[in-house]
Design goal:
It comes from Streptomyces coelicolor (strain ATCC BAA-471 / A3(2) / M145). By secondary structure, the chain is mostly helical. It contains 19 helices and no strands. Helix 9 packs antiparallel against helix 14.
């Protein structure tokens, strides 16, 4: 017991330092990343759609073509991060995407909008899976759900704070002679460039180089992570080469990619079209909203989502991540999103959409704790990037198909039923993946040994 007490103390302080020194900064990078990615959703109903004469399908295509650019360089970018280190590569990504995002300030046609959205995806390629990989390389698996949950809080909070910020910036119409939506693009782009420069000096690639850790903490993290990687190699046998074949040849990776597809399909259908749906409340319910009213209403579902995310990942960390931690929210989201169409007031509609947002954001950080349980090294970089690539395909599909189906059907009934279908499919696939063992074991558990359950 005497030997274990100091080890437990070192573990506790090491994880706390990583949580304080790295997670908030990487989460801030994600906050700015997601705000730049979804800024177009605030611009469209507040002047951009009218100025560029966009139909719903054109807006959906402009929103979604970002993901095609992202897909082109997704896996190569994450492999480059593995080779050159997170500090250099994440800093490079942020500066280049900030520059491209800045150019949206002067877009003047739908063609230019398509081009810049594609280039934004190219510039951002690899950021999200790179951040997931980076954080996964700093903590043992039993702490990973907690760390990724703290990181993932940035995504719903981007809308909680970003929607009112976007509304306020849009209200600065006429500043520098620009329309309000152009002012918004100008000021949400600059932080990415600044953070990219800071990241070059602030981030550290691995625990062994962290001077803010004590020697004991560095040794403990390095030893724990090395032991886990060796254990993964032992579990995978001769296939554990840490190369691309391991990731691309893994049935688990492809199944997880399909699960993630359904979640992201729902995520971006909400992210890109919720402001437009809220704008439509004015005609549907014969009411009027100011720009700031619409911004605050857009933010409403995401604050409860952030709270649910925090406590859901905390529960999964304490009790072991089980299949229902991912499949359960997928069922709730899949059922609730179509129900929103049948509510009789803006308040009831937003309340049901809030349930959907809570479901999506509760599951996502728990889901991302799974791949690094059985992949390491270059295989982890490629596998995580491959799974995220499926999410980017969903991002494009949900954006374009939602807009196209809305134009075709004249309402959001059909596209949101499709969102529900894909989320229910994710739940079914997650259950099937766990059932391959013929057991009710957790998808992941507090202790590294429990990774066998998804085999």
């Amino acid at each position: 017991m005497g030997a274990q007490a100091p080890s437990a103390a070192v573990e506790r302080t090491a994880i706390k330092k990583v949580s304080v020194r790295l997670v908030p900064f990487v989460a801030l990078m994600f906050f700015v990343n997601y705000l730049d990615r979804t800024a177009v959703s605030f611009a469209e109903p507040n002047g951009m759609g009218q100025d560029l004469a966009l139909t719903a399908a054109q807006f959906g295509f402009a929103s979604g073509i970002f993901f095609l650019g992202y897909i082109v360089l997704e896996v190569p970018s994450n492999m480059a991060l593995h080779r050159f280190g997170a500090r250099r590569w994440l800093a490079r990504i942020m500066v280049t995407w900030g520059i491209v995002s800045l150019l949206f300030t002067w877009v003047s046609s739908s063609g230019q909008l398509y081009t810049l959205r594609f280039l934004l995806g190219v510039a951002e390629a690899g950021f999200f899976p790179g951040a997931i990989l980076f954080l996964s390389q700093w903590v043992p698996s039993r702490h990973r759900t907690k760390i990724l949950g703290l990181f993932y809080l940035a995504q719903p909070l981007t809308t909680v704070f970003g929607a009112p910020l976007a509304g306020w910036l849009i209200g600065r119409h006429g500043l520098f002679g620009l329309e309000g939506w152009r002012v918004m693009f100008l000021f949400v782009s600059l932080p990415a460039i600044v953070l990219g420069v800071v990241a070059w000096f602030y981030l550290i690639d691995k625990p062994a180089d962290a001077k803010w850790l004590t020697p004991a903490e560095r040794d403990w993290l390095t030893t724990e992570l090395a032991a886990e990687n060796a254990q993964k190699t032992g579990h995978e046998g001769k296939h554990a080469k840490g190369d691309l074949r391991k990731a691309f040849g893994s049935g688990r990776v492809w199944t997880l990619a399909a699960v993630y597809f359904g979640f992201v399909y729902g995520l971006y259908a909400l992210a890109f079209f919720l402001p437009t749906i809220i704008n439509g409340f004015q005609d549907q319910y014969d009411t009027t909203f100011s720009v700031m009213d619409k911004a605050w209403i857009t933010a409403i579902p995401y604050l409860p989502a952030a709270i649910v995310l925090f406590f859901w990942t905390r529960h999964a960390t304490r009790h072991g991540t089980r299949t229902w931690h991912v499949a359960g929210p997928a069922v709730v989201g899949g059922v609730s999103i179509p129900l929103a169409l049948y509510m009789g007031s803006p308040t009831a509609t937003v309340a049901v959409i809030t349930v959907t947002a809570c479901a999506i954001f509760a599951a996502l950080p728990v889901f991302w704790s799974v791949p690094s349980r059985f992949l390491t090294g270059a295989a982890a970089a490629a596998g995580i990037a491959l799974i995220n690539t499926a999410g980017n395909v969903a991002g494009f599909a949900s954006s374009y198909i939602t807009g196209w189906l809305k134009d075709w059907s004249g309402a959001y009934y059909v596209p949101l039923y499709l969102v529900g279908f894909f989320m229910l499919l994710s739940a079914a696939l997650m259950i099937l993946l766990a059932a391959r063992n013929g057991t009710g074991e957790p998808a992941t558990a507090p202790e590294p040994q429990a990774e066998e359950a998804l085999r």
